[in-house]
Amino acid sequence: MPQWTVAAQEVGTRLDKYLAAPDRAGSRARAATALERGKVFVNDREMTMADAPARVAAGDVVRFWEDRPGTAKKRSSLGADRDLPVVYEDDALIVLNKPAGLLAVPLPLQRRNDARSVFEDLKIYLSRRGRRRPFVVHRIDRDTSGLVLFAKTEPAQLMLKEQFKRHEPERIYQAVVYGHPSPTTGTWHDHLVWDLKALIQKETSPRDPRGKEAISHYRVIEQLAGAALIEVALVTGKRNQIRIQARLRGHTLVGEVRYIYGPDELRPIAFPRQALHARRLTFRHPADDRDMAFDLPLPDDMSELVARLRR
User: Fold this and answer.
1) One of 121, 141, 143, 190 is an active-site residue; which one?
2) Domains of the chain, earliest start first
3) What is the distance between the alpha carbons of residues 302 and 296, in angstroms, rounded to a whole number?
4) pLDDT for 49-108, tens place per residue?
């Protein structure tokens, strides 16, 4: 079992980045897989994917149990309750900070591939407290990070979903896109249709009976080298909405792999996922109607991307 002791010059490094060094796992992807499969230990404590952002400290002993029995498949359970990225919790609901790379909810049966989801992790978390399964209110894409809301009871779910149907909650995202959108503030208004074969959104005519209206407000936060950091407020909430609407205007998200066409495949900025983060979420509490508001800063990978593009 290979092991390493954290040196002074590596103090404060993210665990996944520390593991990704050439003489260890060799890449962020392999580091993530090792964390998912329970192969990584720090000071003899098993680490999970939720520990990827944790910072290593001087003298930490990091072990990589490459051939650990029973780790051939991705792990779907939590090593400890604190591994669930809880932002807020009460008797009616729970707000999570979903890491990029995890599904919000499991894939449909015909598309299952053993991929981990925060829904399944939350089921385990709640079962340990004698509660029933969680109830889905909304979802965000697998490779999008940030705020996602679940209900703990069916009545709370119904009340929250009604708010989302009426487009009442504020849902604000930050994204890094290619180019510099002009004007620097505006509204994207499209009609989209979900392609069941390709599993992507496509633009369609307003006269298409299958089409659904998609509306977003955007503003440029900062212009970068060949790209821009933007903020997008959803009015509607269609699947992959920001990703397709940005692409339709020639401002594909950095790291995008599905909504790319032709020359977009040669995009020069390396990033392992679409650079999209669910930053702000507001809604009314289903029990007493009080205003609830949550904000999350950019995750480390997107912060590092922005800093790199500033230079």
Assistant:
1) 141
2) 3-64 (3.10.290.10), 81-310 (3.30.2350.10)
3) 12
4) 777 888 889 888 998 876 554 444 444 444 444 467 899 999 999 999 999 999 999 877
